[in-house]
Amino acid sequence: MPTAAVLPIKRFEEAKRRLAPALSIERRRLLAEAMVSDVLEALIRCAGVEHVLVVTVDPRARELALAAGAEAVSDPRAPGHNPAAAQGVRRALEAGARRVLLVPGDCPALRPADIDELLAAAPADAPSVVCVPDRHGTGTNALLLAPPAVIESSFGPGSFDRHRDAARAVGAAWVVRRPWPLLHDVDTAADLEALGAALAEDPAVAPRTRGLLAGHAPSPSRVGS
User: Fewer CB under 10 Å: which end of the chain, C or N?
Assistant: First the structure.
């Protein structure tokens, strides 16, 4: 089934402001770049994803997307994650996608096998929503929508319940999966600490993010190399 992945990315200099007490603006920018690069590599390497779309107005994010082999889509004028996700879904539909995976740019431990798990969880013969909650169980870190417009995304606080209710309202199958790399998004210093502990359990994942946190990051531009 033709599958597209949509990765909405805000401007890197505006990213991760809640980490300001722990990281300088330059370190936050570099962290955001490294995490996006790691996520992009996992998406590009996943054989089950035919089309990767990065929705952004950030020139550096566009550069990373194109270097990785993804399509860069202009961000809509409306601010926020959900309008960007909707823009990506529309473009995926135009390109012929029959399902869309919405993923964040701040889950750098993501692996192709985790994406395969989500794709396999979706029923083949019925509309469905596969959801990955955040580690607190209240937010949403990833959505697999089949067909792509089965529901509208509603990311943000409390979004897990909103997505569940929206899926049930249209009669779509509701499936929950919790691959550990997608539980670890990074918004706060506590999230960053939790990610560091998780990365210690699997030294093969998130090379750019791991390197940056250790003080010797490989270049984010070398996605897929």
Answer: C
Peptide bond preceding 147 in cis form (omega within 30 of 0):
yes
Whether 49 maps to a domain, the answer reads: yes
pLDDT score of 176 more than 80: yes
pTM exceeds 0.85, yes or no: yes
Residue 224 within any structural domain of the chain: no
- Residue 130 pairs in a beta bridge with 144, 175
Judged on CB neighbours under 10 Å (0-12, 13-18, 19+), 100 is buried
Structural domain that includes position 26: 3-210
- Beta bridge partners of residue 5, listed in sequence order: 52, 101
Residue 70 lies in a domain: yes
Which of 177, 53, 182 lies closest to 106 in space, CA to CA?
182
Name the token pair of 35.
């995490």
Residue 222 lies in a domain: no
Judged by DSSP in three states, 114 sits in: helix
The pLDDT tens digits for 19-59 are: 888 888 899 999 999 999 999 999 999 999 999 999 999 99
Question: Which CATH number characterizes residue 78's domain?
Answer: 3.90.550.10
